Amino acid sequence: MAKIFLDTNYFIDAIHRKPEEEILASLENNIIYISPLSVHIYCYIFKINIQDVKVMAQIEKFQITDFSEDILTRALIGPTADFEDNVQLHSAAEAECDTFLTKDKQLLDMKFFGKVKLGNN
Question: What is the pLDDT of residues 55-69, one digit of tens each?
Answer without folding.
Answer: 898 889 999 999 999
